[in-house]
Amino acid sequence: MAQTLRPDRRALLISATLAATGLSALPAWSAAPRGPGRGPWGIAKPESAGLSTKALDQAADILGTAGERQGLVIIRGGRLVYERYWANAWHEARPDWRNVSFSSGKSWGATLVGRAYTQGLLGLDDLTTRYHPAAVSGLRPETTIRHLLTMTSGGTLVVKPSSKPPRRLDDPALPGPGVEYARQAEGEPGSPPGYGRDIPAGARFYYDGAAADHLADIVASATGRTSLRYMMDEVVAPLGCETFRYQPEGVDAAGQIRIGGSIELSCRDMARLGQLYLDRGVWGGKRLIAEDYIVAAGAPSPLNPSYGFLWWLNTQGRVPKAPKDMIFAAGARGQFCFVCPDQDLVVATMGFGAAQLSAEQAWAALAPALL
């Protein structure tokens, strides 16, 4: 069984990773617990955190112009300093309203793997076949867990369908059953030739949640629990999430979750994920995720300097005017969790509508009030 690194080796790995990537060190974490722990967020005025209520109101007005936002939450210094909620055809203007994560759920999936790694139950360079046979997963036999985390596995044709969009408030349709793996004849439109067939693991980056979904089965094998139970017990409960759940379609008959999305949660709970990474894996004064894993998750991967472990990075200025040390979870229709270590800042915004809000558009609206 894989073992976690000793503290001295962790420190060396962290230093080497930062030096190799050019990333600045994350803010020093003090012994005093930050964030809400298992309880609700502490509330403070924007001005107490060096921000302006007027400027934030103006930024929120711009962000909500398209009419597709449901919520905006801003955390600084481990406290909730601003929030705004909107009502539309899909949402109510409530802080406990659940939004569909879409692919921003991948960063929660990275945290699931990170927790198992922290407990010494798996290693990042372990072959996936150690836990999940290639004949079942469709992955190439040389694929490692790290390949799945960095979207460099070469792909698979054994896939689950995408997340279901939220239903309109006036739609009485009942949720569907859990989605199961199915074997496709070809890769999705736009995938590279040979995807899921003969592209060697580690040969190229291709953004696709289908391969990452198999991390759920790997974690289940490594931990002896279903990935749903492990996520809820080892990540969601310790973070004190108040609204987090999976869409019925997001859990299969074996109790395995979709890593690529299908989470329903509030902006307040999305912000908890960001605070966990901002505080280098410490939550409520206790170590939840190994620090070297947090650093690696936010470091450029070899085949895409703008991607870490199921987190997008801004090291190459992907999001103009945003800090270069920013990492962010991102999902369709503008589901974002921005984490800015140098600014001690977490921003979560979610919603749904006809427009496709990009990270660049969201940050452009918010940046004047935040930086």
Please explain how this structure is put together.
- The chain is of the alpha+beta class and 371 residues long.
- The protein has one domain (22-370): 3-Layer(aba) Sandwich (Beta-lactamase), CATH 3.40.710.10.
- 29% of the residues lie in helices and 13% in strands.
- The chain is built from eleven helices and 13 strands.
- The strands form four sheets. Strands 2-1-13-12-11-10 form a six-stranded antiparallel β-sheet, with helices on both faces. The protein has a three-stranded antiparallel β-sheet with strand order 3-7-6. The protein has a two-stranded antiparallel ribbon with strand order 4-5.
- A hairpin with a 4-residue loop joins strand 12 (335-340) and strand 13 (345-351).
- Helix 1 (7-21) runs parallel beside helix 10 (291-297), helix 2 packs antiparallel against helix 11 (359-370) and helix 3 (105-118) runs parallel beside helix 7 (215-223).
- The radius of gyration is 20 Å and the shape is globular.
- The chain starts with 6 loop residues before the first helix and ends with a helix.
- 53% of the residues are buried.
- Mean pLDDT is 91; it is low at 1-31.
